[in-house]
Write a structure and sequence with these properties.
The complex is a heterodimer of chains A (269) and B (432). With 269 residues, chain A is an alpha/beta fold. Chain A has one domain: Alpha/Beta hydrolase fold, catalytic domain (Rossmann fold, 3-Layer(aba) Sandwich). In chain A, 43% of the residues lie in helices and 16% in strands. Chain A has 12 helices and 8 strands. In chain A, strands 1-2-4-3-5-6-7-8 form an 8-stranded mixed β-sheet, with helices on both faces. In chain A, helix 4 runs antiparallel to helix 8. Chain A is globular, with a radius of gyration of 17 Å. Chain B folds into 2 domains: 280 residues, Aspartate Aminotransferase, domain 2, CATH 3.40.640.10; 141 residues, Aspartate Aminotransferase, domain 1, CATH 3.90.1150. Chain B is 39% helix and 13% strand. Chain B contains 18 helices and 12 strands. In chain B, the strands form 2 sheets. Chain B has a 7-stranded mixed β-sheet, sandwiched between helices. In chain B, strands 8-9-12-11-10 form a 5-stranded mixed β-sheet. In chain B, strand 4, helix 7 and strand 5 form a beta-alpha-beta unit. In chain B, helix 15 packs across helix 17. The radius of gyration of chain B is 22 Å and the shape is globular. Classes of the chains: A alpha/beta (269), B alpha/beta (432). Chains A and B meet through helix 1, helix 5, helix 7 and helix 12 of A and helix 3, strand 1 and helix 10 of B.
């Protein structure tokens, strides 16, 4: 669905069900250069379990009006604006990669409506190699190849996947090609510049779940361990056989973990 | 640094997870109609496209899915759907986006089945087609109407072998916001990945070179994931809620695989043009050696072009690799490895000589197929293109003396010797 936030058009997939702000809500936040389609299976699952769902396209990405936001702090404030515009309460946030940084910043500042947070495949910070930022600005195809190459684990590289007939790698590449060069480079610079993760993590008091990918080359386990160390008693799950793109590579395992956690902390209303 | 697998590795491995129970290295043949659900929630979520998995083999099957994912990977597409035949793929792809009152602009140089579908069958459902000469880009542009919803062609036209100018057509298709669908059967992704040039959808009869052994009939639709279905209101089947699936909006939810998902959800369910798992297994065996076979096809083709071009019983030879072919420059641009292994030639002495040639070769098989490992010959005017009218025959570049040859993998000296036997029988017609 489309809606306006401070005069700018925003798109969010609602998982195949009309959005209803009186219901408990699951907000899905994707990583750099990606969009709502990253959450195809998960968004439909919760939408058809009596939750309202928002799988958001960040400003400037795919169907949302630009320009892209330049810092994690700005994105955190934009998320607050989305929530207040739609007047949503009882929110569970599910975030992947850069979405985790966006979530740390948003929830640490505006925790009032949040019931649970699920953080997937990220640390407290996401330092980005200057060569990748330079490629995103000047040779986006190279940057996308690097990110897709590092992002997917062995199954992704062999075009295996849970959706019959679909290639996760090719779909991810197509989405990112639609978000270059400006959006991807802006996302990467925002990640690289964000240094407040430790401070933000320590402020979060709602129930937190962390899901770690055993074969993650973009957010290695050492980085995730640092995140876990600064959170307040999170539930931590490790899925050995996945790369960084965990929600797509092992969606069934990921969904089962999300399901039990969200059901327990933010029941459908 | 990241590393992506190359074509030959993808041909062997993509899409397959090694059987976790018994460790079978080959892709198992899941000869089953249906799949046991562990619980009702899993059943409901699989039915509702909330989780990957299989419900019923008319829609998806694990063996067929390996083939689909392998072809999607080879083509660089976001998703693929296999069908019972190449014609089923074409029909399912067209009807996924076109409805009554819509219009196609299609190349006149196409397989007779494609021409017949668009000229005779689809009009009964209110879908009309204007055919264009693939060498006439202005004519192509002028054929586009307000209700045109699809541009269609074969990269290597059958049987005239004219090459589509992909860049020129893509530019116009993008300007008009119309998807460009290419039948890539004759080139396979080994010779040209059309999606890399901006084509939006490819179709294959994988019966041909992809399978390569003349043992199984099959087709595939590959979704390039690169067409913005939501940019206009022309494609409501993709961009508006689909009632039979609880109002699903394919474009909004599935993005780069919206088109393939629509085919899966509607065409495979309602039309049921399903590929069997045994067929998928046979075709997978072929794809494992695609590059090796294509290289040998091209090697033999080049040798045979030389042989035919210098043969005194041959009146003309047509292949895009020859400088005399009208598409030679386009072939060099889009098909640098080679322009496929179908050759057309005329036998001196006309129709009777052509008939005598075909009846006197022994090794080459006289049948209606191309892309087999074995060398095949046929007379298009009386067989594959017999159901289209004289005007369309001329438009397709078919003459009465034309013999269509699909060059196989036999030893080239044996093919030449076989052809000499055929030509010997044509001399009396050429001399008369």
């Amino acid at each position: 669905m489309y809606f306006d936030v401070k005069g700018k058009r925003v798109f969010a997939s609602t998982g195949g069900k009309p959005f209803d702000n009186s219901k408990s809500c699951v907000i899905f936040l994707c990583g750099s250069g990606l969009d709502h389609t990253f959450w195809i299976l998960h968004s439909r699952f919760f939408a058809f379990r009596n939750y309202s769902v928002l799988a958001l396209d960040l400003p400037g990405h795919t169907h949302s009006e630009g320009p892209p936001l330049k810092s994690i702090e700005e994105i955190g404030e934009w998320l607050k604006d989305v929530v207040t515009t739609l007047d949503i309460n009882n929110i569970s946030i599910v975030a992947h990669s850069q979405g985790v940084l966006n979530t740390l910043e948003y929830v640490s500042r505006h925790p009032q409506r949040i019931r649970s947070v699920s953080l997937i495949a990220s640390g407290l910070a996401t330092p980005v190699n200057p060569a990748l930022i330079e490629a995103a600005e000047n040779n986006p195809e190279d940057a996308i190849a690097m990110m897709i190459g590092w992002g997917f684990g062995p199954a992704g590289h062999l075009h295996q996947g849970p959706i019959p007939g679909n290639s996760m790698v090719a779909s991810g590449r197509r989405v990112m090609l639609g978000n270059v060069p400006q959006e991807l480079a802006t996302d990467l610079k925002a990640c690289d510049a964000y240094k407040k993760g430790k401070e933000a993590a320590a402020k979060i008091t709602v129930p937190i779940q962390v899901i770690v990918a055993g074969q993650d080359r973009m957010a290695p386990r050492k980085a995730t361990a640092e995140l876990v160390k600064h959170l307040d008693n999170p539930e931590v799950h490790l899925i050995h056989e996945s790369g960084h793109m965990l929600p797509q590579e092992v969606p069934n395992q990921c969904r089962d973990l999300l399901k039990y956690f969200i059901y327990a902390n933010n029941p459908a209303t | 640094m990241s590393h992506f697998y190359h074509f030959d590795t993808i041909s062997l491995h993509a899409g397959q997870t090694v059987d976790p129970e018994f460790g079978a290295r080959a892709t198992p043949i899941y000869q089953t109609t249906s799949y046991v659900f562990p619980d009702t929630d899993t059943a409901a979520s699989t039915f509702n496209l909330e989780r990957g998995g299989h419900v019923y083999s008319r829609i998806t099957n694990p063996t067929v899915s390996v083939l689909e994912q392998r072809i999607a990977a080879l083509e660089g597409g976001s998703a693929a759907v296999c069908t019972a035949s190449g014609m089923a793929a074409t029909f399912c792809a067209i009807t996924a986006i076109l409805s009554q009152g819509d219009h196609i602009v299609a190349s006149s140089q196409m397989y007779g089945g494609n021409v017949s579908l668009m000229k005779n069958t689809l009009p009964r459902f209110g879908i009309t087609t204007t055919f264009f000469d693939p060498m006439d880009i202005d004519g192509f542009r002028n054929a586009i109407q307000d209700n045109t919803r699809l541009i269609y062609g074969e990269l290597i036209g059958n049987p005239g072998l004219d090459i589509l100018d992909l860049d020129a057509i893509v530019e116009i298709a993008n300007e008009k916001q119309i998807p460009f669908m290419v039948d890539a059967t004759f080139n396979t992704p080994y010779l040209c990945r059309c999606l890399d040039y901006g084509v939006n959808i490819t179709i294959h009869s994988i019966t041909k070179w992809m399978g390569g052994h003349g043992a199984a009939i099959g087709g595939v639709v590959v979704d390039g994931g690169n067409f913005d279905w939501g940019a206009t209101d022309k494609y409501p089947t993709i961009t508006e809620p689909y009632a039979p699936f609880q109002g699903i909006n394919f474009w909004e939810e599935f993005g780069p695989s919206a088109f393939a998902t629509r085919i899966r959800a509607e065409a495979m369910r309602d039309f049921g043009a399903t590929m069997s798992p045994m067929t998928a297994f046979l075709l997978l065996q072929g794809i494992e050696t695609l590059s090796l076979r294509m290289d040998k096809h091209l090697l033999n083709t080049n040798a045979l072009l030389d042989f035919l071009s210098n043969h005194k019983q041959v009146s003309w030879v047509s292949h895009p690799s020859l400088p005399t072919h009208s598409s030679h420059a386009l072939a060099k641009k889009y098909l640098p490895k080679g322009a496929g292994s179908v050759v057309s030639f005329g036998v001196k002495g006309g129709r009777d000589a052509g008939k005598a040639f075909i009846e006197n070769v022994q090794l080459a098989s006289h049948l209606a197929n191309v892309g087999d490992a074995k060398t095949l010959i046929i007379h298009p005017a009386t067989t594959t293109h017999s159901r289209i009218d004289a005007e369309a025959l001329v438009a397709a570049g078919i003459t009465e003396d034309m013999v269509r040859l699909s060059v196989g993998l036999e030893d080239i000296e044996d093919i030449k010797a076989d052809f000499e036997n055929g030509f010997r029988a044509t001399r009396k017609f050429a001399d008369s």
